[in-house]
Specification:
The chain has 415 residues and is α/β, with parallel strands linked by helices. The protein contains 15 helices and 15 strands. It has 2 domains: 113 residues, Enolase-like, N-terminal domain (Enolase-like, domain 1, 2-Layer Sandwich), CATH 3.30.390.10; 259 residues, TIM Barrel. 36% of the residues lie in helices and 19% in strands. The protein is globular, with a radius of gyration of 20 Å. The mean pLDDT is 95.
């Protein structure tokens, strides 16, 4: 079996969630590897969520390395691609796109051998793993916030992640101007949710410090320390991205100053970048993304570096289904995987998902994972367990300018 073609497939589909109203569409960059047989491999680079237009050119750069080669030689081909673009793609966008190509190779190899990708990574370490519903921003109105959490619990989750702050449509995510204001917002929100739901769920918080608009108020280290230390007595699973990813030393100081688990890492784009960050012990929970950090095999390597430091890992997974699947297979092959991120829907009970229209999340599984009592069970479908249905690209054609970015004057994100 030989590779005959590597294609980028861009598409834009609705993403309408009555509990997450900030956007109504999303794009994805899928990568399909074709062979001289009926088998193909399907992967995804999370770059397609942000800058889909630039992905095809990078895939074309790497394609000649793969043409005529056996897709079973994933290690060799990945090393060649890394070497070819090392000067400009050691970190950043080139690494992110390379990871999508590698995912397609592993999907193809798994199909050829008749095994799930996690078997190619050393075998499954878990029968099930706990997962949390990604809930996006925290609504400003208490009733809306309560309804949002109640809906997610009704889907089968018992852990929910919400954004820091309390969001009013059209305003900044984090409007608090002082550390005391920021602390008061989080304490009042947590106390309200604990009073309403008690110990029936675990709350996780995300300050989104690398994904804010020009109008937002970015926390510095003293502010983050003040807020997290004030929350130590509350039942919080972890606090994510309390600082921007511009100072690894500050993250190390933050972690050392609080007993609240500090989570982060989603935008670190390569093994090399992760190695430098881990030297400063920045995270209690390392959030890895196989569709972003150079690929699934990098996920495994980084997870093992974390394991040596006694650090658990979680998936960051806000891509479409192929990227989510890559993260699930990687996590199930890691001993120190602690929790999974999952979009707020039940994959195996579509009748529960009346709040959501999101084809890129729900329509690309061969056999979806099973969500029961807050834990996810991964199917043993060969490869990544994903597919591209006939007519999907025609039904959801790509819309230029649909990538996500942080709004600033002169470039404002539209729904």
């Amino acid at each position: 079996m030989k590779i005959t073609r590597v294609r980028t497939l861009l598409c834009t589909a609705p993403q309408k969630d009555i509990f997450m109203k900030s956007r109504e569409r999303r794009s994805a960059a899928l990568i399909r590897i074709e062979t001289d047989t009926e088998l193909t491999g399907l992967g995804e680079t999370y770059a397609g969520y942000f800058v889909p237009e630039v992905v095809p050119s990078i895939v074309e750069f790497y394609e000649p390395i793969l043409i005529g080669q056996s897709p079973l030689e994933v290690d060799v081909l990945s090393r060649r691609m890394f070497t070819a673009g090392k000067f400009w793609a050691r970190v950043g966008l080139g690494s992110v796109v390379l990871g999508g190509i590698e995912a397609a190779l592993l999907d193809l190899k798994g199909k050829a051998l008749g095994v799930p990708v996690y078997e190619l990574l050393g075998g499954r370490c878990h029968e099930t793993l706990p997962c949390y519903a990604t809930g996006g921003v925290s609504p400003f109105e208490w009733g809306e916030l309560e309804g949002k959490v109640a809906q997610y619990l009704s889907l089968g989750f018992n852990s929910v992640k919400l954004g820091a702050g309390r969001y009013k449509p059209g305003g900044p995510f984090l409007w608090s101007r002082t550390p005391q204001e920021a602390r008061d917002v989080e304490v009042s929100k947590i106390e309200f949710l604990v009073k309403r739901f008690g110990a029936s769920f675990q709350l996780n918080l995300d300050a989104h410090m690398d994904n804010l608009t020009e109008a937002d108020h970015i926390w510095n280290l003293p502010t983050a320390q003040f807020v997290l230390q004030a929350l130590e007595g509350y039942p919080i699973g972890f606090f994510e991205e309390a600082l921007p990813y511009t100072d690894m030393r500050a993250y190390g100081e933050l972690r050392a100053s609080t007993s609240l688990p500090v989570a982060g890492g989603e935008s670190l784009s390569s093994l090399e970048e992760w190695r430098d960050w881990l030297a400063h012990d920045p995270f209690s929970l390392a959030q890895l993304d196989a569709s972003w950090m150079g690929g699934i095999m990098n996920f495994i390597k980084i997870a093992r570096l974390c394991e040596l430091k006694g650090v658990s890992v979680a998936t960051h997974a806000w891509s479409a289904t192929p990227g989510v699947a890559a993260n699930l297979h990687a996590a199930f092959a890691c001993r120190n995987a602690a929790i999974l991120e999952f979009a707020a829907y039940n994959p195996n009970k579509p009748e529960l998902n009346t709040h959501l229209q999101a084809p890129l999340l729900t329509e690309l599984w061969v056999e979806p994972p099973v969500l029961e009592k807050g834990r996810l069970r991964l199917a043993d479908t060969p490869g990544l367990g994903v597919r591209l249905p006939d007519g999907f690209l025609e039904k959801y054609p790509f819309q230029p300018g649909s990538g996500e970015f942080n709004s600033v004057q002169g470039k404002v994100l539209k729904p």
